[in-house]
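Exam review. A common question shows you a sequence with its C-alpha coordinates and asks you to describe the fold in words. Practice with the pair below. Do the first one on your own.
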Amino acid sequence: MTRQRALVYIHIAAVLFGLTGVFGELIQASAALITLGRALFAVVALLGFSRLQRRPLFTSLTPAQLFMLIVAGCLLAAHWVTFFISVKVGGIAVATLGFASFPAFITLFEGLLFREKVRLAEWLVLGLVTLGLVLVTPSFDFADQGTVGLAWGILSGLSFALLALSNRRSTVGLDAMQVACGQNIVVVLAMLPFAASQLPQLAGIDLFWIVLLGVFCTGLSHYLFVSSLTKLNARTAGLVIALEPVYAIAFAWVLFSQEPSLRMMAGAVLIVAAIVWSGLRKAAH
Protein backbone atom coordinates (compact mmCIF):
# COMPACT_ATOMS: atom_id res chain seq x y z
CA MET A 1 0.00 0.00 0.00
CA THR A 2 1.42 3.38 -1.08
CA ARG A 3 0.03 6.83 -0.31
CA GLN A 4 -1.02 7.27 -3.95
CA ARG A 5 -2.92 3.98 -3.90
CA ALA A 6 -4.50 4.93 -0.57
CA LEU A 7 -5.75 8.20 -2.09
CA VAL A 8 -7.27 6.26 -4.98
CA TYR A 9 -8.93 3.88 -2.51
CA ILE A 10 -10.44 6.65 -0.39
CA HIS A 11 -11.81 8.48 -3.46
CA ILE A 12 -13.40 5.27 -4.77
CA ALA A 13 -14.92 4.73 -1.31
CA ALA A 14 -16.40 8.25 -1.35
CA VAL A 15 -17.90 7.65 -4.82
CA LEU A 16 -19.38 4.32 -3.66
CA PHE A 17 -20.86 5.99 -0.57
CA GLY A 18 -22.38 8.61 -2.87
CA LEU A 19 -23.91 5.88 -5.06
CA THR A 20 -25.95 4.53 -2.13
CA GLY A 21 -28.81 6.93 -2.81
CA VAL A 22 -28.80 5.97 -6.49
CA PHE A 23 -29.49 2.34 -5.60
CA GLY A 24 -32.17 3.47 -3.16
CA GLU A 25 -33.85 5.25 -6.08
CA LEU A 26 -33.47 2.31 -8.48
CA ILE A 27 -34.70 -0.46 -6.18
CA GLN A 28 -38.49 -0.80 -6.19
CA ALA A 29 -38.70 -2.39 -2.74
CA SER A 30 -39.35 -1.16 0.78
CA ALA A 31 -36.65 0.52 2.84
CA ALA A 32 -36.73 -2.42 5.27
CA LEU A 33 -36.11 -4.97 2.50
CA ILE A 34 -33.32 -2.87 0.95
CA THR A 35 -31.66 -2.61 4.36
CA LEU A 36 -31.93 -6.36 4.96
CA GLY A 37 -30.44 -7.20 1.57
CA ARG A 38 -27.70 -4.60 1.84
CA ALA A 39 -26.54 -5.92 5.20
CA LEU A 40 -26.73 -9.57 4.10
CA PHE A 41 -24.56 -9.11 1.02
CA ALA A 42 -22.24 -6.76 2.93
CA VAL A 43 -21.54 -9.59 5.38
CA VAL A 44 -20.74 -11.92 2.48
CA ALA A 45 -18.40 -9.34 0.94
CA LEU A 46 -16.64 -8.55 4.24
CA LEU A 47 -16.07 -12.25 4.88
CA GLY A 48 -14.48 -12.50 1.44
CA PHE A 49 -12.24 -9.47 1.97
CA SER A 50 -11.17 -10.75 5.39
CA ARG A 51 -10.08 -14.05 3.82
CA LEU A 52 -8.05 -12.17 1.22
CA GLN A 53 -6.29 -10.27 4.00
CA ARG A 54 -6.19 -13.29 6.31
CA ARG A 55 -7.79 -11.24 9.06
CA PRO A 56 -10.00 -13.10 11.55
CA LEU A 57 -13.44 -11.50 11.86
CA PHE A 58 -14.78 -13.60 14.69
CA THR A 59 -12.86 -13.26 17.93
CA SER A 60 -14.04 -13.45 21.50
CA LEU A 61 -15.97 -10.45 22.80
CA THR A 62 -16.68 -9.38 26.34
CA PRO A 63 -20.38 -9.18 27.31
CA ALA A 64 -20.10 -5.38 27.30
CA GLN A 65 -18.58 -5.35 23.80
CA LEU A 66 -21.26 -7.71 22.51
CA PHE A 67 -24.02 -5.56 24.00
CA MET A 68 -22.62 -2.39 22.43
CA LEU A 69 -22.21 -4.18 19.10
CA ILE A 70 -25.90 -5.08 19.18
CA VAL A 71 -26.88 -1.50 20.08
CA ALA A 72 -24.70 -0.14 17.28
CA GLY A 73 -26.15 -2.64 14.80
CA CYS A 74 -29.69 -1.52 15.67
CA LEU A 75 -28.66 2.12 15.20
CA LEU A 76 -27.12 1.24 11.83
CA ALA A 77 -30.38 -0.44 10.79
CA ALA A 78 -32.34 2.68 11.83
CA HIS A 79 -29.89 4.89 9.92
CA TRP A 80 -30.26 2.90 6.69
CA VAL A 81 -34.03 2.52 6.87
CA THR A 82 -34.61 6.24 7.45
CA PHE A 83 -32.10 7.13 4.71
CA PHE A 84 -33.82 4.94 2.11
CA ILE A 85 -37.24 6.28 3.11
CA SER A 86 -35.81 9.78 2.63
CA VAL A 87 -34.52 8.88 -0.85
CA LYS A 88 -37.90 7.48 -1.91
CA VAL A 89 -39.86 10.43 -0.52
CA GLY A 90 -37.60 13.41 -1.17
CA GLY A 91 -34.98 12.34 -3.70
CA ILE A 92 -31.27 11.55 -3.56
CA ALA A 93 -29.92 15.07 -3.02
CA VAL A 94 -32.35 15.94 -0.22
CA ALA A 95 -31.72 12.61 1.54
CA THR A 96 -27.94 12.93 1.36
CA LEU A 97 -27.91 16.52 2.59
CA GLY A 98 -30.28 15.66 5.43
CA PHE A 99 -27.98 12.81 6.46
CA ALA A 100 -25.00 15.20 6.25
CA SER A 101 -26.41 16.97 9.34
CA PHE A 102 -24.80 14.30 11.54
CA PRO A 103 -21.73 16.41 12.58
CA ALA A 104 -24.13 18.91 14.16
CA PHE A 105 -25.84 16.16 16.16
CA ILE A 106 -22.45 14.79 17.26
CA THR A 107 -21.51 18.24 18.56
CA LEU A 108 -24.77 18.51 20.50
CA PHE A 109 -24.57 15.01 21.98
CA GLU A 110 -20.94 15.39 23.00
CA GLY A 111 -21.95 18.43 25.02
CA LEU A 112 -25.20 17.04 26.44
CA LEU A 113 -24.42 13.35 27.00
CA PHE A 114 -20.67 13.30 27.62
CA ARG A 115 -20.40 16.70 29.32
CA GLU A 116 -17.65 17.71 26.93
CA LYS A 117 -17.13 21.43 26.52
CA VAL A 118 -18.49 22.65 23.19
CA ARG A 119 -16.19 25.35 21.84
CA LEU A 120 -17.22 28.41 19.86
CA ALA A 121 -15.92 26.90 16.61
CA GLU A 122 -18.12 23.83 17.13
CA TRP A 123 -21.17 26.04 17.65
CA LEU A 124 -20.26 27.75 14.37
CA VAL A 125 -20.21 24.34 12.65
CA LEU A 126 -23.64 23.64 14.13
CA GLY A 127 -24.86 27.01 12.88
CA LEU A 128 -23.52 26.42 9.37
CA VAL A 129 -25.21 23.01 9.13
CA THR A 130 -28.51 24.44 10.44
CA LEU A 131 -28.42 27.32 7.95
CA GLY A 132 -27.58 24.88 5.18
CA LEU A 133 -30.58 22.72 6.09
CA VAL A 134 -32.84 25.77 6.11
CA LEU A 135 -31.71 26.59 2.57
CA VAL A 136 -32.12 22.97 1.43
CA THR A 137 -35.68 22.72 2.82
CA PRO A 138 -38.07 23.05 -0.17
CA SER A 139 -40.79 24.64 1.99
CA PHE A 140 -41.79 24.67 5.63
CA ASP A 141 -44.91 22.64 4.92
CA PHE A 142 -45.12 18.94 5.73
CA ALA A 143 -47.54 18.52 2.82
CA ASP A 144 -44.45 18.99 0.64
CA GLN A 145 -42.81 15.65 -0.21
CA GLY A 146 -39.36 17.24 -0.33
CA THR A 147 -39.75 18.59 3.19
CA VAL A 148 -40.90 15.20 4.50
CA GLY A 149 -37.97 13.56 2.73
CA LEU A 150 -35.56 16.01 4.34
CA ALA A 151 -37.04 15.25 7.76
CA TRP A 152 -36.36 11.54 7.21
CA GLY A 153 -32.85 12.43 6.06
CA ILE A 154 -32.23 14.41 9.24
CA LEU A 155 -33.46 11.40 11.26
CA SER A 156 -30.91 9.35 9.31
CA GLY A 157 -28.21 11.83 10.34
CA LEU A 158 -29.40 11.69 13.96
CA SER A 159 -29.19 7.88 14.10
CA PHE A 160 -25.78 7.94 12.39
CA ALA A 161 -24.50 10.43 14.98
CA LEU A 162 -25.64 8.11 17.78
CA LEU A 163 -23.95 5.22 15.93
CA ALA A 164 -20.69 7.18 15.64
CA LEU A 165 -20.75 8.03 19.35
CA SER A 166 -21.49 4.43 20.35
CA ASN A 167 -18.63 3.21 18.14
CA ARG A 168 -16.33 5.74 19.73
CA ARG A 169 -17.03 4.23 23.15
CA SER A 170 -17.30 0.55 22.27
CA THR A 171 -14.82 -0.32 19.50
CA VAL A 172 -11.56 0.34 21.33
CA GLY A 173 -9.29 -2.66 20.74
CA LEU A 174 -11.55 -4.17 18.06
CA ASP A 175 -10.68 -4.52 14.37
CA ALA A 176 -12.71 -2.16 12.16
CA MET A 177 -13.64 -4.97 9.74
CA GLN A 178 -14.80 -7.11 12.66
CA VAL A 179 -17.00 -4.27 13.92
CA ALA A 180 -18.49 -3.69 10.46
CA CYS A 181 -19.23 -7.38 9.92
CA GLY A 182 -20.74 -7.80 13.40
CA GLN A 183 -22.96 -4.74 13.02
CA ASN A 184 -24.20 -5.91 9.63
CA ILE A 185 -25.08 -9.31 11.09
CA VAL A 186 -27.14 -7.50 13.74
CA VAL A 187 -28.86 -5.48 10.98
CA VAL A 188 -29.82 -8.71 9.18
CA LEU A 189 -31.29 -10.20 12.36
CA ALA A 190 -33.08 -6.95 13.25
CA MET A 191 -34.68 -6.51 9.82
CA LEU A 192 -35.77 -10.13 9.23
CA PRO A 193 -39.07 -9.79 11.17
CA PHE A 194 -40.00 -6.68 9.15
CA ALA A 195 -38.85 -7.71 5.67
CA ALA A 196 -38.86 -11.52 5.45
CA SER A 197 -42.48 -11.67 4.25
CA GLN A 198 -41.60 -9.33 1.36
CA LEU A 199 -38.83 -11.56 -0.03
CA PRO A 200 -41.09 -13.63 -2.36
CA GLN A 201 -42.24 -10.41 -4.09
CA LEU A 202 -38.70 -9.17 -4.73
CA ALA A 203 -38.13 -8.68 -8.48
CA GLY A 204 -35.01 -10.14 -10.10
CA ILE A 205 -33.66 -6.73 -11.16
CA ASP A 206 -34.15 -5.39 -7.62
CA LEU A 207 -32.20 -8.34 -6.23
CA PHE A 208 -29.40 -7.51 -8.67
CA TRP A 209 -29.28 -3.88 -7.49
CA ILE A 210 -29.36 -4.97 -3.84
CA VAL A 211 -26.39 -7.30 -4.42
CA LEU A 212 -24.43 -4.42 -5.95
CA LEU A 213 -25.45 -2.13 -3.08
CA GLY A 214 -24.35 -4.61 -0.42
CA VAL A 215 -21.13 -5.79 -2.07
CA PHE A 216 -19.83 -2.52 -3.53
CA CYS A 217 -21.41 0.38 -1.59
CA THR A 218 -21.08 -1.37 1.77
CA GLY A 219 -18.57 -4.23 1.80
CA LEU A 220 -16.05 -2.93 -0.77
CA SER A 221 -16.36 0.71 0.30
CA HIS A 222 -15.64 -0.20 3.92
CA TYR A 223 -12.71 -2.39 2.88
CA LEU A 224 -11.22 0.45 0.79
CA PHE A 225 -11.82 2.99 3.57
CA VAL A 226 -10.13 0.86 6.23
CA SER A 227 -7.25 -0.04 3.90
CA SER A 228 -6.59 3.59 2.99
CA LEU A 229 -6.21 4.55 6.66
CA THR A 230 -2.94 2.56 6.80
CA LYS A 231 -1.33 5.41 4.79
CA LEU A 232 -3.66 8.39 5.24
CA ASN A 233 -4.31 10.45 8.35
CA ALA A 234 -7.82 11.19 9.62
CA ARG A 235 -7.80 14.72 8.19
CA THR A 236 -7.12 13.61 4.61
CA ALA A 237 -9.64 10.76 4.80
CA GLY A 238 -12.30 13.04 6.30
CA LEU A 239 -11.82 15.68 3.59
CA VAL A 240 -12.35 13.12 0.83
CA ILE A 241 -15.35 11.42 2.46
CA ALA A 242 -16.91 14.87 2.93
CA LEU A 243 -17.34 14.92 -0.85
CA GLU A 244 -20.04 12.23 -0.59
CA PRO A 245 -22.96 14.72 -0.84
CA VAL A 246 -21.32 16.30 -3.89
CA TYR A 247 -21.08 12.94 -5.65
CA ALA A 248 -24.65 12.06 -4.65
CA ILE A 249 -26.07 15.32 -6.03
CA ALA A 250 -24.09 14.87 -9.26
CA PHE A 251 -25.37 11.30 -9.71
CA ALA A 252 -28.97 12.37 -9.05
CA TRP A 253 -28.64 15.21 -11.57
CA VAL A 254 -27.08 13.10 -14.34
CA LEU A 255 -28.98 9.83 -13.88
CA PHE A 256 -32.44 10.98 -12.75
CA SER A 257 -32.56 14.64 -13.87
CA GLN A 258 -33.00 15.72 -10.22
CA GLU A 259 -31.53 19.16 -10.86
CA PRO A 260 -30.80 21.06 -7.63
CA SER A 261 -31.98 24.64 -7.29
CA LEU A 262 -29.51 27.46 -6.59
CA ARG A 263 -30.86 27.60 -3.04
CA MET A 264 -30.21 23.87 -2.55
CA MET A 265 -26.72 24.26 -3.99
CA ALA A 266 -26.01 27.09 -1.54
CA GLY A 267 -27.22 24.93 1.34
CA ALA A 268 -25.07 22.04 0.11
CA VAL A 269 -21.98 24.29 0.03
CA LEU A 270 -22.60 25.38 3.63
CA ILE A 271 -23.13 21.81 4.88
CA VAL A 272 -20.08 20.39 3.07
CA ALA A 273 -17.97 23.34 4.26
CA ALA A 274 -19.07 22.67 7.85
CA ILE A 275 -18.17 18.96 7.53
CA VAL A 276 -14.73 19.77 6.07
CA TRP A 277 -14.02 22.41 8.70
CA SER A 278 -15.11 20.10 11.50
CA GLY A 279 -12.84 17.36 10.14
CA LEU A 280 -9.87 19.70 9.86
CA ARG A 281 -10.33 20.91 13.44
CA LYS A 282 -10.59 17.40 14.90
CA ALA A 283 -7.51 16.27 12.98
CA ALA A 284 -5.57 19.29 14.25
CA HIS A 285 -6.44 18.41 17.85
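Now try the second one, then compare your answer with the model answer below.
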Amino acid sequence: MNNARSEKYSLFMISTLSVLIFVSLWELSTRLGLIDPIFLPAPSDVFQRAVRTLENGTLVANVLASTRRVMIGFLMSVAVSVPLGLVLGSSRRACAVFDPIISLLRPLPSMSWIPLSLLWFGITETQKYSIVFMGTIAPALLYVIDATRNVDKVLIQAARNMGASHYQVMRHVILPASLSQIIIGFKIILGLAWTCVISAELIAAKEGLGFMIMNGKEFFQTDTVVLGMVMISLTVLIIDALLRRIEKRVLAWK
Protein backbone atom coordinates (compact mmCIF):
# COMPACT_ATOMS: atom_id res chain seq x y z
CA MET A 1 0.00 0.00 0.00
CA ASN A 2 2.83 2.39 0.93
CA ASN A 3 4.63 1.56 -2.32
CA ALA A 4 1.49 2.33 -4.30
CA ARG A 5 1.06 5.68 -2.52
CA SER A 6 4.74 6.50 -3.02
CA GLU A 7 4.52 5.74 -6.73
CA LYS A 8 1.33 7.79 -7.06
CA TYR A 9 2.96 10.75 -5.30
CA SER A 10 6.07 10.39 -7.49
CA LEU A 11 3.98 10.44 -10.68
CA PHE A 12 2.06 13.48 -9.42
CA MET A 13 5.32 15.35 -8.75
CA ILE A 14 6.64 14.46 -12.21
CA SER A 15 3.43 15.78 -13.82
CA THR A 16 3.57 18.96 -11.73
CA LEU A 17 7.21 19.55 -12.64
CA SER A 18 6.40 19.01 -16.32
CA VAL A 19 3.70 21.69 -16.20
CA LEU A 20 5.97 24.13 -14.35
CA ILE A 21 8.77 23.66 -16.89
CA PHE A 22 6.36 24.17 -19.79
CA VAL A 23 4.88 27.36 -18.29
CA SER A 24 8.38 28.68 -17.42
CA LEU A 25 9.65 28.14 -20.96
CA TRP A 26 6.53 29.80 -22.35
CA GLU A 27 6.99 32.81 -20.05
CA LEU A 28 10.68 33.07 -20.82
CA SER A 29 10.16 32.85 -24.59
CA THR A 30 7.64 35.69 -24.45
CA ARG A 31 9.74 37.90 -22.20
CA LEU A 32 12.83 37.43 -24.40
CA GLY A 33 10.84 38.46 -27.47
CA LEU A 34 11.01 35.04 -29.12
CA ILE A 35 7.19 34.98 -29.20
CA ASP A 36 5.14 38.08 -30.00
CA PRO A 37 2.65 38.60 -27.12
CA ILE A 38 0.05 39.76 -29.64
CA PHE A 39 -0.07 36.20 -30.97
CA LEU A 40 0.60 34.37 -27.69
CA PRO A 41 0.63 36.32 -24.40
CA ALA A 42 2.82 35.33 -21.47
CA PRO A 43 1.27 33.15 -18.73
CA SER A 44 1.69 36.05 -16.28
CA ASP A 45 -0.45 38.27 -18.55
CA VAL A 46 -3.11 35.56 -18.74
CA PHE A 47 -3.03 35.28 -14.94
CA GLN A 48 -3.47 39.04 -14.55
CA ARG A 49 -6.45 38.92 -16.91
CA ALA A 50 -7.88 36.06 -14.82
CA VAL A 51 -7.56 38.15 -11.65
CA ARG A 52 -9.32 41.12 -13.26
CA THR A 53 -12.18 39.03 -14.61
CA LEU A 54 -12.54 37.26 -11.27
CA GLU A 55 -12.81 40.60 -9.51
CA ASN A 56 -15.58 41.87 -11.80
CA GLY A 57 -17.37 38.49 -11.78
CA THR A 58 -17.37 37.88 -15.54
CA LEU A 59 -15.05 34.85 -15.43
CA VAL A 60 -17.19 32.90 -12.98
CA ALA A 61 -20.38 33.87 -14.85
CA ASN A 62 -18.94 32.66 -18.18
CA VAL A 63 -17.68 29.37 -16.70
CA LEU A 64 -21.02 28.65 -15.02
CA ALA A 65 -22.98 29.53 -18.18
CA SER A 66 -20.98 27.14 -20.37
CA THR A 67 -20.96 24.38 -17.73
CA ARG A 68 -24.73 24.62 -17.28
CA ARG A 69 -25.32 24.37 -21.04
CA VAL A 70 -22.95 21.42 -21.39
CA MET A 71 -24.40 19.46 -18.48
CA ILE A 72 -28.06 20.00 -19.41
CA GLY A 73 -27.49 19.09 -23.07
CA PHE A 74 -25.29 16.15 -22.08
CA LEU A 75 -27.80 14.80 -19.54
CA MET A 76 -30.57 15.09 -22.14
CA SER A 77 -28.41 12.99 -24.48
CA VAL A 78 -27.75 10.43 -21.72
CA ALA A 79 -31.46 10.22 -20.81
CA VAL A 80 -32.33 9.35 -24.42
CA SER A 81 -29.32 7.26 -25.46
CA VAL A 82 -29.22 4.82 -22.52
CA PRO A 83 -32.74 3.34 -22.76
CA LEU A 84 -32.86 3.61 -26.55
CA GLY A 85 -29.34 2.19 -26.92
CA LEU A 86 -30.19 -0.79 -24.69
CA VAL A 87 -33.23 -1.57 -26.83
CA LEU A 88 -31.36 -1.17 -30.12
CA GLY A 89 -28.38 -3.16 -28.87
CA SER A 90 -30.53 -6.11 -27.83
CA SER A 91 -32.98 -6.11 -30.76
CA ARG A 92 -31.82 -6.51 -34.36
CA ARG A 93 -35.20 -5.46 -35.73
CA ALA A 94 -35.33 -2.26 -33.70
CA CYS A 95 -31.75 -1.50 -34.74
CA ALA A 96 -32.70 -2.02 -38.40
CA VAL A 97 -35.37 0.68 -37.99
CA PHE A 98 -33.14 3.29 -36.33
CA ASP A 99 -29.73 2.47 -37.84
CA PRO A 100 -30.27 4.49 -41.07
CA ILE A 101 -31.33 7.53 -39.02
CA ILE A 102 -28.30 7.24 -36.72
CA SER A 103 -26.04 6.81 -39.76
CA LEU A 104 -27.42 10.04 -41.23
CA LEU A 105 -27.02 12.03 -37.99
CA ARG A 106 -23.58 10.72 -36.98
CA PRO A 107 -21.44 12.54 -39.60
CA LEU A 108 -23.11 15.91 -39.00
CA PRO A 109 -20.89 18.29 -36.97
CA SER A 110 -22.49 20.42 -34.26
CA MET A 111 -21.86 23.57 -36.34
CA SER A 112 -24.24 22.31 -39.02
CA TRP A 113 -27.15 22.41 -36.55
CA ILE A 114 -26.63 26.06 -35.58
CA PRO A 115 -28.60 27.69 -38.46
CA LEU A 116 -31.61 25.42 -37.94
CA SER A 117 -31.50 25.72 -34.16
CA LEU A 118 -31.44 29.53 -34.44
CA LEU A 119 -34.54 29.37 -36.66
CA TRP A 120 -36.30 26.99 -34.28
CA PHE A 121 -35.38 28.51 -30.91
CA GLY A 122 -33.70 31.89 -31.56
CA ILE A 123 -30.74 33.06 -29.48
CA THR A 124 -31.94 31.31 -26.32
CA GLU A 125 -30.63 28.82 -23.79
CA THR A 126 -32.80 26.15 -25.40
CA GLN A 127 -30.87 26.68 -28.62
CA LYS A 128 -27.57 25.99 -26.81
CA TYR A 129 -28.98 22.87 -25.16
CA SER A 130 -30.23 21.61 -28.52
CA ILE A 131 -26.79 22.04 -30.13
CA VAL A 132 -25.16 19.94 -27.40
CA PHE A 133 -27.92 17.33 -27.62
CA MET A 134 -27.85 17.01 -31.41
CA GLY A 135 -24.05 16.96 -31.47
CA THR A 136 -23.79 14.12 -28.92
CA ILE A 137 -26.87 11.92 -29.28
CA ALA A 138 -25.66 9.85 -32.26
CA PRO A 139 -22.20 8.95 -30.85
CA ALA A 140 -23.73 8.37 -27.39
CA LEU A 141 -26.22 5.92 -28.92
CA LEU A 142 -23.42 4.09 -30.73
CA TYR A 143 -21.44 3.70 -27.49
CA VAL A 144 -24.45 2.27 -25.65
CA ILE A 145 -25.37 -0.07 -28.53
CA ASP A 146 -21.79 -1.34 -28.78
CA ALA A 147 -21.56 -1.85 -24.99
CA THR A 148 -24.87 -3.73 -25.01
CA ARG A 149 -23.77 -6.07 -27.78
CA ASN A 150 -20.54 -6.88 -25.93
CA VAL A 151 -22.38 -8.35 -22.93
CA ASP A 152 -21.65 -12.05 -22.49
CA LYS A 153 -24.44 -13.98 -24.22
CA VAL A 154 -24.15 -16.75 -21.62
CA LEU A 155 -25.35 -14.33 -18.90
CA ILE A 156 -28.32 -13.29 -21.01
CA GLN A 157 -29.29 -16.86 -21.84
CA ALA A 158 -28.95 -17.92 -18.20
CA ALA A 159 -31.33 -15.14 -17.12
CA ARG A 160 -33.85 -16.16 -19.79
CA ASN A 161 -33.64 -19.82 -18.76
CA MET A 162 -34.55 -18.73 -15.24
CA GLY A 163 -37.71 -17.07 -16.55
CA ALA A 164 -36.60 -13.43 -16.73
CA SER A 165 -38.62 -11.21 -19.05
CA HIS A 166 -37.00 -9.10 -21.79
CA TYR A 167 -37.27 -6.00 -19.56
CA GLN A 168 -35.76 -7.84 -16.58
CA VAL A 169 -32.88 -9.08 -18.71
CA MET A 170 -32.11 -5.54 -19.88
CA ARG A 171 -32.40 -4.03 -16.39
CA HIS A 172 -30.70 -6.68 -14.28
CA VAL A 173 -28.22 -8.26 -16.72
CA ILE A 174 -27.42 -6.11 -19.76
CA LEU A 175 -27.34 -2.68 -18.05
CA PRO A 176 -25.05 -3.68 -15.11
CA ALA A 177 -22.76 -5.69 -17.40
CA SER A 178 -22.41 -2.86 -19.94
CA LEU A 179 -22.37 0.06 -17.49
CA SER A 180 -18.58 0.25 -17.20
CA GLN A 181 -18.12 0.54 -20.97
CA ILE A 182 -21.01 3.00 -21.23
CA ILE A 183 -19.46 5.31 -18.62
CA ILE A 184 -16.11 5.24 -20.44
CA GLY A 185 -17.89 6.23 -23.65
CA PHE A 186 -19.82 9.02 -21.95
CA LYS A 187 -16.56 10.53 -20.67
CA ILE A 188 -15.51 10.93 -24.29
CA ILE A 189 -18.95 12.27 -25.20
CA LEU A 190 -18.67 14.89 -22.46
CA GLY A 191 -15.57 16.29 -24.17
CA LEU A 192 -17.54 16.38 -27.42
CA ALA A 193 -20.33 18.24 -25.61
CA TRP A 194 -17.87 21.01 -24.75
CA THR A 195 -16.89 21.28 -28.41
CA CYS A 196 -20.58 21.64 -29.30
CA VAL A 197 -21.34 24.36 -26.75
CA ILE A 198 -18.24 26.39 -27.60
CA SER A 199 -19.22 26.24 -31.28
CA ALA A 200 -22.67 27.57 -30.39
CA GLU A 201 -21.29 30.31 -28.12
CA LEU A 202 -18.79 31.50 -30.72
CA ILE A 203 -21.66 32.35 -33.07
CA ALA A 204 -24.69 33.28 -30.95
CA ALA A 205 -24.28 33.98 -27.24
CA LYS A 206 -24.13 36.80 -24.72
CA GLU A 207 -22.13 34.89 -22.13
CA GLY A 208 -20.08 31.72 -21.83
CA LEU A 209 -16.48 30.74 -22.48
CA GLY A 210 -17.04 30.62 -26.25
CA PHE A 211 -18.46 34.15 -26.13
CA MET A 212 -15.49 35.19 -23.97
CA ILE A 213 -13.01 33.80 -26.52
CA MET A 214 -14.77 35.47 -29.46
CA ASN A 215 -15.05 38.77 -27.57
CA GLY A 216 -11.33 38.66 -26.80
CA LYS A 217 -10.58 38.01 -30.46
CA GLU A 218 -12.72 40.98 -31.58
CA PHE A 219 -10.83 43.37 -29.27
CA PHE A 220 -7.38 41.80 -29.91
CA GLN A 221 -7.19 40.66 -26.27
CA THR A 222 -5.25 37.45 -26.82
CA ASP A 223 -4.83 37.05 -23.07
CA THR A 224 -8.63 36.78 -22.82
CA VAL A 225 -8.67 34.22 -25.63
CA VAL A 226 -6.01 32.07 -23.93
CA LEU A 227 -7.74 32.47 -20.56
CA GLY A 228 -10.98 31.17 -22.08
CA MET A 229 -9.14 28.18 -23.52
CA VAL A 230 -7.43 27.45 -20.19
CA MET A 231 -10.74 27.67 -18.32
CA ILE A 232 -12.32 25.15 -20.71
CA SER A 233 -9.52 22.69 -19.97
CA LEU A 234 -9.63 23.26 -16.21
CA THR A 235 -13.42 22.94 -16.09
CA VAL A 236 -13.34 19.68 -18.06
CA LEU A 237 -10.62 18.30 -15.75
CA ILE A 238 -12.69 19.14 -12.66
CA ILE A 239 -15.84 17.57 -14.11
CA ASP A 240 -13.84 14.51 -15.15
CA ALA A 241 -12.50 14.13 -11.59
CA LEU A 242 -16.06 14.33 -10.23
CA LEU A 243 -17.19 11.70 -12.75
CA ARG A 244 -14.40 9.38 -11.62
CA ARG A 245 -15.69 9.61 -8.04
CA ILE A 246 -19.23 8.88 -9.21
CA GLU A 247 -17.95 5.98 -11.31
CA LYS A 248 -16.21 4.45 -8.29
CA ARG A 249 -19.43 4.61 -6.28
CA VAL A 250 -21.66 3.31 -9.07
CA LEU A 251 -19.24 0.50 -9.97
CA ALA A 252 -18.09 -0.25 -6.43
CA TRP A 253 -19.14 -3.88 -6.94
CA LYS A 254 -16.42 -4.26 -9.61
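Model answer, second protein: The chain is about 80% helix and 0% strand. The mean pLDDT is 87. Full marks require stating both points clearly.
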